[in-house]
Design goal:
By secondary structure, the chain is an alpha/beta fold. The protein has two domains: 4-47 and 273-363, Aspartate Aminotransferase, domain 1, CATH 3.90.1150; 50-270, Type I PLP-dependent aspartate aminotransferase-like (Major domain) (Aspartate Aminotransferase, domain 2). The chain is 41% helix and 15% strand. The chain is built from 15 helices and 13 strands. The protein has a seven-stranded mixed beta sheet with strand order 2-8-7-6-5-3-4, sandwiched between helices. α4 (50-60) packs antiparallel against α12, α6 runs parallel beside α7 (121-129) and α13 (272-296) packs parallel to α15 (349-363). The longest helix has 25 residues, at 272-296. It binds pyridoxal-5'-phosphate. Residues 42, 94-96, 120, 163, 167, 194, 196, 223, 225, 231, 236 line the site of pyridoxal-5'-phosphate. Residues 42, 94-96, 120, 163, 167, 194, 196, 223, 225, 231, 236 line the site of pyridoxal-5'-phosphate (PLP).
């Protein structure tokens, strides 16, 4: 009988599965820890909006029916909020799915995809699935080096992914840098601005949706998983020219976003108060964690998102394991070639405090 490894496509054989943050349930079960907090996956520690919870409950009675495959009312609401047409929006089962739809629609085998590294791993997986060729450009000061990304472009390049703010560093590229990049990038290349943490960023943040309006081949990605607190439902979306969305819809699963998720996302968009509260919590948590890291003599990367990359100057994996025993789940980032760092999500004040107490204990500070 043939070995399974000989049956699979060679480009799949080399893909490392995406390592998700460790679930709370696993830590409780495996380590017997009763109280566990998760600061590993950049979720919103405030939880979902109460309005979204009510909408989900109301939607439950209808789950015998398939969802609206076109996510009509969600797109209508997003279109109104963003000042775009409904036909310029594609809704996905998380932005993760939209990323896969993008590579499946546009990437031919051997075509190049330019990404920054350390950067979001899903771009690599999506590229490899399509037998694309990944070109990684190093970050500069933990930030996308757009000049280097431009230099990495060849006549084989099809796609460029720019996570703004970046994961796992939390850094952003500003309006002027992006403007320069868009002026120089050849116009047949598709530029994806992944703005999963958009709502947390401030300062001179680029308004990227307008590029598609100007006829550029850009796709802007946003999500309900972060500030909207709906990561467990899986809803994300992309904004691009209508013609691009039409092509991507050819391969989108017909019912990719479930009924409960669509209802919750619509309601979440109406809850401005919840978003506002989440921003305030994040800003205060950021200040607290910076102050504590400073006091401990730890260096960190200043963030434009809801997580902080901190340099602990010893094995991140080891400290991560020790923190698990304290009931704190953070993210080791050795798989991003950052072996001496941890990525920690900014959570509620009590959780941030518990994390700092546990970190001091395991670092012997
Ligand atoms: C940069 C970036 N893009 C996309 C995603 C995925 O978001 P979603 O939950 O919408 O699939 C994440 C999640 O961590 C992310 O960090």
């Amino acid at each position: 009988m043939k070995n399974i490894r000989d049956l699979i496509r060679p480009n799949i054989a080399n893909i490392l599965p995406y390592p998700p943050g460790k679930p709370i349930e696993d830590v409780k079960r495996e380590l017997g820890v009763k109280e566990v907090i998760k600061m590993a996956s950049n979720e919103n520690a405030l939880g979902p909006s109460p309005k979204a919870v009510k909408a989900m409950k109301d939607a439950l009675a209808g789950v015998n029916l398939y969802p609206d495959g076109n996510s009509y009312y969600l797109k209508q609401k997003l279109a109104e909020k963003l000042g775009v047409a409904m036909e310029e929006i594609i809704v996905g089962n998380g932005t993760d799915e939209v990323i896969r739809i993008i590579t499946e629609t546009f990437l031919n085998p051997g075509e190049e995809v330019v990404v920054a590294w350390p950067g979001f791993v899903i771009y690599s997986i999506a590229t490899n699935v399509m037998s694309g060729s990944l070109k990684r450009t190093p970050l500069k000061n933990y930030t996308h080096d757009l000049e280097a990304m431009l230099n990495a472009v060849t006549d084989k390049t099809k796609l460029v992914f720019i996570a703004n703010p970046n994961n796992p560093t939390g850094t952003m590229v500003d309006k002027d840098e992006v403007e320069m990049f868009m002026k120089k990038i050849p116009e047949d290349i598709i530029v994806v601005f992944d703005e999963a943490y958009y709502e947390y960023a401030n300062g001179n943040f680029p308004q990227t949706i307008r590029y598609a309006k100007e006829g550029k081949n850009t796709i802007v990605l946003r999500t309900f998983s972060k500030i909207y607190g709906l990561a467990g439902l899986r809803v994300g979306y992309g904004i691009a020219q209508k013609e691009m969305v039409t092509e991507m819809n050819r391969i989108r699963q017909p019912f990719n976003v479930n009924r409960v998720a669509q209802s919750a996302a619509i309601a979440a968009l109406d809850d401005k108060e919840h978003v506002e509260k989440s921003i305030v919590m994040n800003e205060e948590g950021k200040k607290y964690l910076y102050k504590e890291f400073d006091a401990m003599g730890l260096e960190y990367v200043r963030t434009s998102a809801n997580f902080i990359l901190v340099d602990i100057k010893r094995s991140g994996k080891e400290i991560y394991e020790k923190l698990l025993k304290e009931g704190v789940i953070v993210r080791p980032v050795d798989n991003y070639d950052l072996p001496n760092f941890l990525r920690v999500t900014i959570c509620k004040p009590s959780e941030n405090k518990k994390f700092i107490g546990s970190l001091k204990k395991v670092l012997g500070k």
